[in-house]
Structures are given as C-alpha cells and as structure tokens.
Amino acid sequence: MTKFLPVLLALAVAPSLCTAFGFAPPAVALRGARAPVATARRAARLGPTCSTAEKKADWSSKLLKDSPDNNVTPYIANLVGRDLHLLPAHPLHIIKEKIEAYFKSRDASFECKDSLDPIVTSTQCFDDLLIPEDHQSRRFSDTYYISKNDLLRTHTSAHQTELLRSGSTKFLCTGDVYRRDEIDSSHYPAFHQMEGVKILDECKGMENREEWEAMCVADLKSYLEGMIDEIFGPVEKRWVDAYFPFTTPSLELEIYFNDDWLEVLGCGVIQQPILEKCGMDDSHGWAFGLGLERLAMVLFDIPDIRLFWTDDKRFLKQFKDGEITKFKPYSKYPPCYKDIAFWLPEDWEENNFAELVRNVAGDIVESVSVIDKFDNPKKGKTSHCYRINYRAMDRSLTNEEVDALQESVREKATKELKVELR
User: Fold this and answer.
1) Residues 362-390: pLDDT tens digits?
2) Whole-prediction pTM value?
3) In what order do the strands lie in the sheet with 237-244?
C-alpha cells in the first residue's frame, strides 16, 4: 500500500499510485507523486514478532541468473540485504521505530514484521492483491524478475495475504522494496515501505456493508491521523479519494507541511475477495502503506535519496535513535553534465535506459532527464536527447573519469538497447 507508496500504497515515487502499484510513494514530491499455511516451514519464514534481520545471505547467488527471464543486475543485488531500516540511529530506522511505538501504544497486539524475505512470487505480489494482468507494474521494464514467477517485491503488501493466512490480523510490515525507475534526487531503485493491516474484531460476521465499511473507515482515520500527529506534530490534514486495486473505498492522506500539501500515505478498506482467499469470508478490515524515505526526507531535510545508502560517517553521525534532527550538508561537489542523443527503437522503454546508466555509473549519477524530443516524419523516427548529471556525494569527479563513463553509456546503449546515436 511510492507513486502508489506497500501494495496497500512506498505509494516512493515518480508515477501515479496506480502506476507504481502500492500504497506508499517512493519519492518525495509535494504534489502529483502517487505513490501487505500454517505450516512449520511457513511459520519459520514469517519469523517472530518484531523480528530482527538474519545474517546477511549471499544474495548474488540467489538473484543473478543467466536466464532471459532475469533482469536483476549486480548493482541491485548489492543493495539487497543492506536492511537500512534495521540500522540503529539511521533516519529510516528512527521513523520506523516511532510508527511502531505509536501503534503498539494504541493496541499492544500489533505485530511488527521487519525481516521477511524480499524474494516473493508474482502471485503474492500481484495476483493475491487483485492487480490486473495487464498492469504496468508487472512489466519487465518496471519490476526486477529473478525468474518468470519469482521477483524482488515491489511493495511490502506482497506479504499481506501470507501474514493473514498465518493468523496475523493486526500487523506492521516493513522492508526494502525494488522498482526499475527514473533517476533523480527523489527516486532510487531500492527504497523502504511500511504496510499496516488491521482486521476489526467488532466487524466480524457483519453483513451490512454500509455499516462495517463505515466502521472500518472511521477506525482507519483515527489510527492514521493519530500517527501523523505523533510524527509531525499537529498539522492540517485532508483526505482525498483514490484508487487501489486492493482496497475499496481507497483514500490518500495529505498534510499541510512547509507551506504546501504533501501526500504521505495511501490506504483503504481491504477488498473482500482478498480476505475470502485467506479463509476470512466474514472478516473486514483496513490497510495502509507509506514510504519511509518520503517521510524521512521531509522530516530530516535530506535533499538526495542516495544519502540513505551512504556509509559516510559525516552523514551517519548526525542522527541519534529516537530523535528527529535536521541534516546538515557537509559538501556539495560540482556537477558534470553530459548529453546523449539518439533515435529510439520501436520497443523503447525509458526505464531501461535509466537502468543502463545506473549499471555503468552507479550512485555517481545524480539525475537523467530528457531535454529535447524530435519527431522526423520522413524517417518515421523519434529522437530523444538526455542530459546525464554526474555528481558524486563524497568527492569531485575528474573530466577523464566522467568521459570514460559517458563513452561506456554510449557504447552500451547502442549494443544493448539498439539505439541509433546522433
């Protein structure tokens, strides 16, 4: 639950909530970014309440496969298992702990799941949540597939039905999620979401939809408005009608913060077919999703989403558990802009170009943007000119270094994406 920030909204960023498929937005945008059996084996996989991360696995061997159905890169595999949300005094951990403490104070029976396997099936991630088969989120250009049926979760909502079938009825599920996306200061291919689910005991067995739906919505709003006040302090709020495949009615919560309206989460009443597939035909409840980076960037004044992944002590030492302190920039190295123009192939997917640039230059790239488009009616072709901003967060780049990276981008774009350079 990113432009959608878990599937019930990490809604984290760029596209619309529906496009991104999840309750939580991945990026921080002030407007327009719309962003979660009972066998011994399954119980062990779900882990204990408020679980901690297991020892880091050899993710490369699990994720990198020589198969046409696999599009995970070494760059992405290196991010899996970092578990930033579990690192003490990290901004994402601070936000996570504050939200969990609030929910536990309202109802001590809420479970906190934070170490579930990021590898899920397409059934968990899409089918169980009623996401249509033709939805953009299922595309090879949008999601990291390990095989035809296994993938890196695109939202923490991928665990929703799994947890419900295991007997959990009140839980928060937090974890890293992955989406092929554009490159800028608020988008990153890995980010963190939290999904919350509550099945209302008082609604069990109720048949009048109007009555139980109203009870679910009222309870949902009470919890989430209280959570926002706990994190931001008393702020002006407004509820906006939305659409998510897995909830109805669906809502987004916006707050007036720093002189503008900010979308902070998506939520709604869980679709009955989802609960019925979990053997909960006579139960009713709600779910929400939010992106931790979105909240942390606003609360801590962190200007670039890449900073969350840095090991630089100048960043990490600025924060303490339980405290929200404003980030103090320690450097701003000069940018280096390089342009590349080419004719597009017929099957052009812009996310593929962003992925190629990431694989070549990694976190040295701050942004990639289209600065010109040209249609040639005679040739029946379209040309794009992209501007790549190379800027490291910890040092100045040399012209020779950037030139070598740019040349590699040009060569790989021609070979792998079949573009025609201009």
Assistant:
1) 999 999 999 999 999 988 999 999 999 99
2) 0.86
3) 111-113, 170-178, 190-199, 285-291, 260-270, 247-257, 237-244
